[in-house]
Design goal:
The strands form two sheets. The chain has a five-stranded antiparallel beta sheet with strand order 1-2-9-4-7, with no helix packed on it. Strands 6-5-8-3-10 form a five-stranded antiparallel beta sheet. It has two domains: about 150 residues, Sandwich (Jelly Rolls); about 40 residues, no CATH class. About 5% of the residues have low confidence. The protein contains four helices and ten strands. The chain is globular. By secondary structure, it is α+β, with helices and mostly antiparallel strands. Helix 3 crosses helix 4. Helix content is about 20%, strand content about 25%.
C-alpha cells in the first residue's frame, strides 16, 4: 500500500514536471497570433477576436513537395504558428517532409516537442538516440503507412532507403517546436565556435573542423 502511494505520488510528480516542459493549455477558445504585433510574450499576443476569420485557421501548400536540391537531399515544409497564426497557444503543429532517393533529414532535435511521423510514400530508415550516459540508438525501417515517434528533445534523423522519392507527415506537440540541427548548429553558428573547442570536443585536428565549418 505504502509502496503504491509512493509510486502514485512519483507518477503524479512526473506528469506535472513533463507538462511544464510543453506548451501550456489555452485559457480561451483561440488566440490567433497577432503576427505584426509589437508586444513580446511567451508565444504571440492574440489578435482581436472580432477580426479573426477562417483564413487565420487555414494553411495551403502541403500538396507541394519541398525542395530537396540540397546536400542533405531533403526538404521540410513547416506548418507552425509562424505559418498558421491560428495555432498560437494550441500546443500543436505539423510538417511535410520530402526526401530525394537516399536523401537524409540530418540529426536534429526539437527542444519543445515530441514528433509523431507517418510515411505517405517510400521507405525511411529512422532513429533517435537517448540522453547520456546510455546514448542508446533506436532505429527502424518504415514503409508507407507506418508510424514512429521521436520523444521530445532527443536527437533523431530519417533517411530515404529507396530509389524513389519519399514523403512523410509529422505532428508535433508545440505551436513552435524549434529545430536544432546538430551539424549546422555546432559547425555553422554565427559567429563560429572556436575550432580549438570543436577539435577537442570531436577529437580531430583543427583543419578537419575548419573543413566542416566551411560547409555550413
Ligand atoms: C531548390 O533549391 C535550390 C538550391 O537552393 C535552388 O537552386 C533551386 O532553384 C530550388 N528549386 C526550386 C524549384 O525552388
Amino acid at each position: 500500500m505504502a509502496t503504491s502511494i509512493v509510486f502514485s505520488s512519483l507518477l503524479a510528480f512526473c506528469f506535472c514536471y513533463v507538462s511544464l516542459a510543453f506548451d501550456p493549455q489555452p485559457l480561451q477558445d483561440f488566440c490567433v497570433a497577432d503576427v505584426g504585433g509589437a508586444v513580446r510574450v511567451n508565444g504571440v499576443v492574440c489578435k482581436d477576436p472580432k477580426k479573426v476569420t477562417a483564413e487565420d485557421f487555414f494553411f495551403s501548400g502541403l500538396q507541394e513537395p519541398g525542395n530537396t536540391s540540397n546536400p542533405s537531399g531533403s526538404g521540410v515544409t513547416p506548418v507552425f504558428a509562424a505559418q498558421l497564426p491560428g495555432l498560437n497557444t494550441l500546443g500543436i503543429s505539423m510538417a511535410r517532409l520530402d526526401y530525394a532517393p537516399w536523401g537524409i533529414n540530418p540529426p536534429h532535435t526539437h527542444p519543445r516537442a515530441t514528433e509523431i511521423l507517418t510515411v505517405l510514400e517510400g521507405s525511411l530508415h529512422v532513429g533517435f538516440v537517448t540522453s547520456a550516459p546510455e546514448n542508446r540508438l533506436f532505429t527502424k525501417v518504415l514503409q508507407k503507412g507506418d508510424v514512429f515517434v521521436f520523444p521530445a528533445g532527443l536527437i533523431h534523423f530519417q533517411r530515404n532507403v529507396g530509389y524513389t522519392n519519399a514523403v512523410a507527415i509529422a505532428g508535433l506537440n508545440s505551436q513552435n517546436p524549434g529545430v536544432i540541427s546538430v551539424a549546422a548548429n555546432v559547425f555553422g553558428s554565427n559567429p563560429l565556435i572556436s575550432s580549438d573547442v570543436l577539435a577537442k570536443a570531436f577529437q580531430v585536428d583543427r583543419n578537419i573542423v575548419e573543413t566542416i565549418q566551411s560547409k555550413f
